[in-house]
Amino acid sequence: MRSSRNYDDTKQPELPGLPGPWRSIPALAEIINAGATVPTLSEHALRHYVRHAAKNGLWPHVRRLGRKIIVSESGFMKWLDSVGG
Questions:
Q1: What totals of helices (H) and strands (E) does the chain contain, helices first?
Q2: Which is it for the CA torsion 36, 84, 58, 50, positive or negative?
Q3: Residue 39 CB: number of other CB atoms within 10 A?
Q4: 74/61 Cα distance (integer angstroms)
Q5: How many CA atoms lie within 13 A of 3 on its CB side?
Q6: Is there a contact between 73 and 79 (Cβ–Cβ < 8 Å)?
Q7: pTM check: above 0.85
Q8: In this predicted model, what pLDDT tens digit does every residue of 15-36 receive, in sequence order?
Q9: Distance separating alpha carbons of residues 70 and 24, to the nearest angstrom
């Protein structure tokens, strides 16, 4: 049962000193593919990029919180532009 506090479930996590907003991989895939008839980047492709983040330069934009992986939306877009995506 939820407590009587008012929680905003739509609020994205903000990490101090880091640009935000931070999104889960499924949420980032949904944002990137919004309005597209054919998905541009699948959730599987995003997981591949995150898995190899240390090799491909995406690492500064990825955070692991236990099992949860979050990606900076603005950082991912900058990284995508820099690699020619």
A1: 4, 3
A2: positive
A3: 13
A4: 9
A5: 4
A6: no
A7: no
A8: 555 555 899 999 999 999 998 8
A9: 5
